[in-house]
Amino acid sequence: MEELITNAPASWPTVRLKGFVPSNRPEHRKANQLHFATAVESSFRGSEVQVLEADVIRITPGGAVQVPLRVRDKEGEYDLFFYADPDPEAAGHYEALQALARKTGRFRPIFYSTDDLTLIYPDPPAEPVARRDRLYVSASLFPTKGQYAMWWAERPGERFLLSRTYEIYDRIYHEVAGLETSAFAQILLELEMIQDEEEFALMTSVPSRIEIPLLGPEGVPMVASFSPDRGIRFHLHMRHATSEYRDAFLELFLARMKLWKKERPTPRFTIADSPPLNWWRGLWKRLQGNEEEQTAEVVGSLSR
């Protein structure tokens, strides 16, 4: 049984591990993470450090980060990463995690390995530390009751048109203009609600509004809505989502759409081909010209 090296707080219990494969390769990763999670849970039992959950997704403006284990002590929550082989690539991966954490402030990475990663000269990681090819959402059969919205003010005087949320939505509307039906189909494909884009195109041949309750990354309730005239919108639960989470999720969706467009040829379009983009521009004009609406505290609200 080997004692693991870590940069965790000195007050935390020591973690010892056996039975793992000294490799960071994908085919060994899941089994190694299971051994690690079991060892941590056993070592931390009865201590001030509480194991919260294993194999979770944390979203950041840079993408979604898969976290093997999350724990909490009196100072807050931490995200634990296990590197079975402390090679330069592992050091590079952890260094990239730290950089992303410093930039976004959305997670706190701690490493465990058989050597000190901070003393190893890092190589660039073979895989990105944050993924942008999925939204990590699942359909919610029993949506959380409450108020959902595209945007809401968290402090007095905040305005939608001046918010980061508005800026990201503006980029989304322009990115998928003319392709809204196919873009929403990508969400349904990830949810395994349809088999291909054509199936959804047939469903939307008659103008209608679709609302799908979801659980987003980190278990945050939200509703994805689609209509031919307003396009794709996400309404997040106002009590369960912070503004940082809201913007990080929208950034993830925008990045997902950019990757999707790279993978397929996209036809040229005109503004007239995109009623949602026209609606979005009309919303901007209406908000600009109406002082009462400019100071609205909630935009795009839904109740469940």
Explain this structure.
- The chain is α+β, with helices and mostly antiparallel strands and about 300 residues long.
- It has 2 domains: about 1-120, no CATH class; about 140-304, no CATH class.
- About 35% of the residues lie in helices and about 25% in strands.
- It has 8 helices and 15 strands.
- Helix 2 links the parallel strand 6 (about 75-85) and strand 7.
- The termini are far apart.
Topology diagram in text:
Elements: E1 2-3, E2 5-6, E3 16-17, H1 26-44, E4 50-60, E5 63-73, E6 76-83, H2 88-104, E7 109-113, E8 138-139, E9 147-149, E10 151-152, H3 164-175, H4 180-190, H5 197-203, E11 210-215, E12 221-227, E13 231-237, H6 243-263, H7 275-289, H8 291-294, E14 298-299, E15 302-303
Parallel strand pairs: 6-7
Antiparallel strand pairs: 1-3, 2-7, 4-5, 5-6, 8-11, 9-13, 9-15, 10-14, 11-12, 12-13
Helix pairs in contact: 3-6, 4-5
Can you describe this structure in just a few lines?
With about 300 residues, the protein is α+β, with helices and mostly antiparallel strands.
Keywords for this entry:
alpha+beta, 6-stranded antiparallel sheet, 5-stranded mixed sheet, elongated
Mean pLDDT: 91
Oligomer: single chain
Number of strands: 15
Radius of gyration: 22 Å
Poorly predicted runs of 5 or more residues: none
Helix content: 25-40%
What structural category do the secondary elements indicate?
alpha+beta
Amino-to-carboxy terminus distance:
52 Å
Overall number of structural domains: 2
Discrete helix count: 8
Strands side by side in the biggest sheet? 8-11-12-13-9-15
Basic shape: elongated
The secondary-structure element order is EEEHEEEHEEEEHHHEEEHHHEE
| Strand residues, percent | 15-25%
Largest sheet: 6 strands, antiparallel
